[in-house]
Amino acid sequence: MLVRRPEEVEDQAMTMPGAQGVTMKLMVGRDDGVPNFAMRLFTVQPGGQTPKHAHNYEHEVMIVEGQAQVFDATIDSERPANAGEVLYIPANQLHQFRNTSKAPLRFMCMVPTSYDCSAPESDTSTPEFAPTPGS
Ligand SMILES: [Zn+2]
């Protein structure tokens, strides 16, 4: 068994175009020898947002702290999501997390390990995440 705390994991700035005030901690991923699911802890600062984007894999999200405004493609609009709530975002569905509150937003996001944003296996394009200076 592996046990890990958020404070033990490096925070990486999300560098994807459209991201603002977003950092990610890869809590468990393929570098740990995990075969299927990666777990990531995101922090969005007040006024920050993830890019509005879609991809060919799903997200399973749990809001851990704070409040998000989440773009929901099924209603073509935003809906609030609060700490304790779980969201399932199917593959290829547009989504975005915005923090319009005055407190940090934290959420867990599960993805297949092949998309866990650790050292890319073969993709040499611009990484979506970069180490945060000083962390
Ligand atoms: Zn996504």
Automatic annotation (TrEMBL):
Domain of life: Bacteria
Molecular-function GO term, any one: dioxygenase activity
Family annotation (SUPFAM superfamilies): RmlC-like cupins
Family annotation (Pfam families): Cupin_2
Keyword terms: Dioxygenase, Metal-binding, Oxidoreductase
Residue stretches making up the Cupin type-2 domain: 41-110
Protein name per its UniProtKB record: Quercetin dioxygenase-like cupin family protein
Source organism per UniProt: Algisphaera agarilytica
